[in-house]
Specification:
This protein is of the alpha/beta class. The chain has ten helices and ten strands. It has a single domain, classed as LigB-like (Protocatechuate 4,5-dioxygenase, Chain B). β8 and β9 form a beta hairpin. The two termini are 32 Å apart. 48% of the residues are buried. Keywords: Dioxygenase, Metal-binding, Oxidoreductase, Zinc.
Length: 267
């Protein structure tokens, strides 16, 4: 069973309670995808200069945010871990020349558990996290995804969790959607459909207002993890319309190597 890969825009922690458009789309996806034996998530809320893999048999829920209502801090996502699968992750990384340390104490950050609350609300699919390389490099995330791509053939779902746009300074300035958010999101979708990996890797120069969409790019880089993990079928892509929250956060997400997606033709 070969699974597709996912890039999910996890938005703000409020996404846990305000599903908007994307929450129901993820719920439907979780019901239609073949059930994975484990999920591996890369999130910008766990970045390390050297790779780490969470190996705990049970994962605690980390509330790694401040200034939000108390109800958010009471949420829990008690999905089990999968130590055996985590060891396989370490082995696959080593096979590709990527050294990783095990971390038995790492709790799950909100980049992992918030979107998973919608995708697998019963919290019954084991979850593993792999730290995101702290070097801001699309190629590093692409390589990380390529290294773990073989796990798809063993029933492991690989997810890059980030945000299609992520300028928190523009969030909620007014009730209108910032035009650059739409322009940037549409450019990414167009390049994905066209199979234009070179342009995507060079997005900071080629995409409209890329630096405004991502003053720092740690939330965009998980897209490249999902691309790399999808392998040569990455351009079989489906867009999950997530809308825009707070005027500046595009919640659009993407399913790669989707058997139902038609192969996109280059523009």
């Amino acid at each position: 069973m070969s699974l597709p890969t996912l890039f999910i825009s996890h938005g703000s922690p409020f996404f846990a309670l305000r599903p908007g458009r994307l929450g129901p789309a993820l719920a439907r996806l979780g019901q239609t995808l073949p059930r994975p034996r484990a999920v591996v998530v890369v999130s910008p809320h766990w970045m390390r200069p050297t790779l780490e893999v969470s190996t705990a048999a049970s994962g605690e829920t980390m509330h790694d945010f401040g200034g939000f209502p108390r109800v958010l801090y009471a949420l829990d996502y008690p999905a089990p871990g999968a130590p055996a699968v985590a060891e396989t992750v370490v082995t696959e990384l080593a096979r590709h020349g990527l050294s990783a340390q095990v971390n038995e104490a790492r709790a799950r950050d909100h980049g992992a558990w918030v979107p998973l609350m919608h995708l697998y609300p019963a919290a019954d699919v084991p979850v593993i996290q792999v730290s995101q390389p702290s070097a801001p490099s699309p190629l590093a995330l692409l390589e990380l995804g390529q290294a773990l791509a073989p796990l798809r053939e063993t029933g492991v779902l690989l997810i890059g969790s980030g945000s299609l746009t992520h300028n928190l300074g523009d969030r909620g300035r007014d009730s209108q959607v910032a035009p650059y958010v739409v322009a940037f999101a549409d450019w990414v979708w167009d390049r994905l459909q066209a199979g234009d990996l070179d342009a995507l890797l060079d997005y900071r120069r080629q995409a409209p207002e890329a630096v405004r969409a991502h003053p720092t790019d740690e939330h965009f880089l998980p897209l490249f993890f999902a691309l790399g993990a999808a392998g040569c079928d990455w351009f079989r892509v489906r867009r999950l319309d997530g809308g825009i929250t707070d005027g500046a956060l595009s919640m659009d997400s993407f399913l790669f190597a989707d058997p139902a997606a038609e192969r996109a033709q280059a523009a």
